[in-house]
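seq as requested:
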Amino acid sequence: MNRLLFGALMAVILVGSVSACGTESDSPAEMLPSSGAVASSTTTSTVAETTTVKPLPATTSSTARQTLPPVEAEPAPAAAAPAAAPEVTPVPMPPVVCMNLQAAQNLIQELGVFYSRSVDATGKGRSQVLDANWIVVGQTPGVGVPIGEGDAVLSVVKIGEPNPC
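struct tokens:
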């Protein structure tokens, strides 16, 4: 019941606000009362009528049940084959020992290998967040060995830490 009253109230408010809006013919001169005349206005509100429909009670007799025809399952659309990763032609590992980690990664990428790994050479397991702050002190594989994606492993220490460079 409260919903019905709320809905009716909202309809009255909506209709009242719409009818209170000016039209294109409203001009300031028309809105002012003429000399000696008293301005009046009339507002008409309309309440929308609502109807509530109750569902029919469920029946248990076998004559009231409908049998629906079986639904044939449509074959699932063929999944598109995942795009194959572009094949990387192995390239020779460049000499990167004693280079800044960022510069070493850039050199490996220029050769066509875009994924190389780096590890903390001190064994502390530190992450290389800012690659420019690290220096390469070892590389696997050695210089000239063919590498692909992820094959290059660069051992690094922070710049300023003891190293053989």
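Residues 31 and 37 are 12 Å apart (CA to CA).
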